[in-house]
Protein 1
Amino acid sequence: KGARSQGAETETIYLKEKKIHSCIGCYTCWTKTPGVCVFKDDMPELLEKVRNSDMIVLATPLYNFNMTSLLKAFQERLLPLLDPHLVKKGETYRHPMRYEGNRKMVLISNCGFPEVSHFDGLRHVFRHMEQGGYMLLVGELLMPAGELLKQKGLRDKIQPVLQAAYRAGVEVVRDGRVSEETEAMIQKPVISPDQMAEMANLWWDSQLQGMAQGAPQEGQRVEDIRLLFKGMALAFNSQAAGDLKATIQFEVTGKQPGNWFLSIENGKCTSHEGKEDRPTLTIKTPSEVWLAIANRETDGQQAFMQGKYTAHGDISLLMRMKSLFGGAPSTNI
């Protein structure tokens, strides 16, 4: 969208929808039929698009510290665009491009790990492609902890990343490359690595437990009450809170019993296990009820009126839960 806002014409191609045979290194595209591969699949059409483009944006999740096999197959089949001769550039030899052009490329990737260093192998590959004369690398949009992009409860925290991605599109057209400031904004952690790791481990534990019990695992459904309270703290809306200072205690019964509380102070919210001496609000609920509310399977207000959970203390705080944790599914009360 950012590139289009500057007048660029764009096209999105999903490689999973294309038939791309693996390169077998026969070099027919260099000898018998220069520039033409022996395989009659979708790649000739894609090669023509590459030839006629000014810039290619290559997007891939990080698989085992590298690109996916789909993108790797596409990258290998770019061989017909190269001339077989060895030409020295600087201190190294490379294959020159068969067709004239000044094409540029941008790398986009995300990974599950919380640190940007996990992209080092992928970055090295693309920078080597640049040095080999393929195309000039003019942007690296790399987001660690990419799973957070689809968490609705973190929408406010994710927005700066999406805005930076839009700005990157503007910059590559207007300035010819993505600025270091924009790249840094996308790489900036949305939450701390420790928080990310803790939530990821809780989620995997819930999935493994569900599989062991023969329970179906349904996409984004929250199954673990611990993960739910962590998510509420991360989804906290500091603007709605203002100068609020409060503690919300949860006394949980049912299949996942325990005590947790949310502490709100100085525009921040943290989740803790245990009991607070003087909570502002205490919510007593079976885990199944609060999880059902979190997954929007039960209306929170109706559940309260029916006595499925109870609240004691500052009830006005209960009424503010939706604004305080509006992005979190657990606050549909």
Protein 2
Amino acid sequence: MSYARFPYYKQAGWESSAADNVPYLTLTVAFATLVFLVEIYLDHRQMRKFNPKHAQIPERLREVVQAEIFEKSLAYRREAFAFKLYESSFAFATSVLMLLLGYLPWAWDQAAKASRSIVVWVLGYGDLSSWSDYYTECLVTYIFIMIFMLTDTLLTLPFSLYSTFVIEQRHGFNKSTLLLYAQDKLTVLCLSLALSGPILSAVIFLVRWGGDLFYVYVWLFLLCVSILMMTLYPVLIAPLFNKYTPLPPGPTRDAVHALAEQLHFPLTALYSVDGSRRSAHSNAYFFGLPLLGQRIVLYDTLLTQVQNPLHALLHIIQDPLMMSRVVDSSLSFPSSPPPS
């Protein structure tokens, strides 16, 4: 790979790392390719599990699982998984292409140009030098994130549409409409842009203020944000997409509360959600922090498909959520300070 040729777009003052005998771009592309090939190999191994020649109903389930339903499930899994392979291949190709073309530095330069226009023409300042460096960096970063998110949305939209309105529809799972789909996408995009502004501003402030230990403060801040969002999302954001109603009194409610008491699970509320608006898939989950009480949500499709959906509490018996959050956060913590 020629260092002078790639990346195609180069920012002002860019110098190739070849002078230091460290081909970062080549190493990055090579590592990404290696990871992709390993994942593709594992995915193809998994695909064989959906072949009727290899997949059989377990002996203990043959009395409760119909052969016809099992075959339909395999057909759905095969098609969905094969489509996932195409999608991941496209994502890998576009990622490598963006690296070689220099998409990220190009997007940053476009964000810087846009921010100059906003400062001069919208806010009425003479130029960027008349404005705070901190506010300038926040504005450029925010516009950069907007460009990146819009690009990612456009690239993934065809795959999302095909998955929802072709594969899911063909197998009888899709219940959504184009209008509801567009509404969901627009809502997610607006929420992402609205939430990213304050978070990015805080991260930039911590980087500027934190000195040599800035990465510690950023890590702690993002950990707190992650826990806060994990708690607030089901309460404030999820209701924007679905309707949550308390599960009415009956055998299911009584059985779930009895099992929660038996397991010493701090159940404070039990809800049903109208998941059938978008999909015929069934699901159940819980949310909330153990010390503040936790809530269980059952999809309405689950309530109509089975009489006693107590498997919802299987998500809680081992309670891996908080432990996985701690592990993920510890892995995201740098093992050593960044080079000065």
Protein 3
Amino acid sequence: MRALMSVVPGGPETLEWVDIGPPTVGKGEIRVSVRAAGLNATDLLMMRDRYQDKVARPYSPGGEIAGVVEELGAGVHDLAVGDRVVAILGSGGLREEVLLRSSDAILIPDGVSYEEASVLPIAYASALHALEDRARLAHGERVLVLGASAGIGLASVQIATRMGAEVVAACSTAEKVEIAMAEGAVRGLVYGEGAQSADRHELRRLFADVVGADGADVVVDPVSGSLADPAARAMRTGGRFVLVGFAGGVGSVPSNVVLVKRAEIVGSALGEHLKDHPEHLRTLLGQLFEWCVEGTLRPSVTSVIPLCEAVSGLDLLDRRAITGKVVVRLGE
């Protein structure tokens, strides 16, 4: 079968196509024909050896997949051939077939497509974990979301809106703010990118003006970098700052502001959480699937590409030239 492999550290241009043999099913495992694989920033970090969990090469990128069960290993009684399942792999998804422990496979309900299901385990489950478990978001609270047009950021906009929050979207361009507002944000701000980004004092004023005098109850930050400071200052007294990533570099949250505002600063890393509580993924996906089936949440899949174009999809992600989620489609 065909697989896209990382053989040396680097960006998407370093990936190679390799023909490999079919996987052999062991006890307690299932063989799954991959129908869709979601692409994530963690794929890029792993490829460059910048992720906390190192993967031995050669390996396939692709941390989340949806597919159909093709074969059951000995001792597997809770699934059947033909079942539609979704799972977090960590890596290995950009190939035609994968092996899973049966306990890691979660059934996809009717009414949810493979493409939609494939983006839920990482970005959407991470957003729900950050908002519900870590921020303890309540109906009617105000949420400031950084990087609000893609990945965890856009998922946070959608989920916070579904939970009854007032969402303020912070994005690098006006076009991206419009995307976030189409998904439920009530207003937004443009912080710019590269040479067009505002200076520190301008960012502080901008965030304060748009978020409002009362401040944000919750900040969801997948960007960090130079945005952590003005976002923290835009919190209300007793606010919660939830760090879910650092796509813009390691930032600095002002300790004096945290002290005076009596704020909470919490990390939200779903992957680390699931190492201790793997069963919680079923709870998170159960809620997400329920919303999808009832029509109150529609995962933002903005680009679906075939396996042969997976390198181009990763390149779009690497250049931040995409909003929503990129999905690689395989099979029929």
